[in-house]
From TrEMBL:
A Pfam family of this chain: Glyco_transf_8
Protein name stated in the entry: Putative xyloside xylosyltransferase 1-like protein
Secretion signal, residue range per the UniProt entry: none
Keyword Transferase in annotation: yes
Organism: Rhodnius neglectus
Upper classification of the organism: Eukaryota, Metazoa, Ecdysozoa, Arthropoda, Hexapoda
Transmembrane segments: 6-32
Amino acid sequence: LLMRHYLKILLLLLLTAVFLIIVYVFVTNSFFTEYNLKRNEKYHLINEEYEENRALNAQRYNVWCVFTKLKKTERSLEYKLKNMLISLVNTTSLVINLNIVVDTSSRYVAKDVVNEILKITGKKFEVEYHDVHVLTNKLQDLLNVMRPHFSSQPGAYYSDSLFFLSLGLYRVAPINQDRIIMLDIDTLIKKDIGQLFKVFQQFNSTNVFGASPELTPVYHHILYVYRNKHKNTSLGEPQSSGGFPGVNSGVLLLHLDNMRKSSLYQKMLTKEIVDSLAEKYSFKGHLGDQDFYTLISLEHPELMYLLDCGWNRQLCTWWRDHGYRETFHKFSECNSPTKIYHGNCNSIIPEQ
């Protein structure tokens, strides 16, 4: 009888222990489930915040221009910058993030111009100033590769470091800038720059830059030796005849994100490749970055997105008076409506 009593007590204790274990498992499971839910919720919130910030950065409309080498007695560059910026902000409803590359002498002039435009237009835009020497000092390796092939001689106008800046901007621009438009200050914007930013949506993963065709025979001239050896080539021929006349860098779309990811583009920047291509095409340029963009497009057109000529309606007629009077019209032909005028060669930009 006593043994039976002990067995009952033992059974009761066993059942109590099992019950407590079940309760413990249930409570612990509930705690971790709630913890994981909260953790997942926090993770999704962080993820959403990250995606929101990423989208915000992607929507920043970054426009770059270079404003350097001012002369004390010459105000033409200041006048050009003012006109370009007024046309830029007056033709868009976007809030532009303006990036101005300056040197010691131009920084304060640029700030005065910007302040004046803010008052004149009443438009809101953001401004960042970048020291040209800080940027180019970080790109000396690249500049040393480019100068021998794309400037006429040491000390020449286009031998200056700033004329090669766009090639390495993917290395020195703020990392949150992944798509930028770079404008020469001798341009005048006629249509909403937002429409040009939309062109980035047409880039594929291999396109690292976008540029309009060159509207003069400069590369027809530079490629003279190559064309003589390759009689049927379309390289250097006017676009109106189905050729490729090279590109002009007065208006550039730079897909910095693609540049950062493209092993092919970065390979194109090496001395070995630039030397090899310059030899292959008998190419000796004098126009800085646009010579490089033209040269790599001859070999790897997939790196380039060819813009509508209306986005860079060049007005220079120098070549018409220097050996190409009979054929110049074939190169300068652009049947697209003008969206940006480019007053290169100090050309006068039409008021209307």
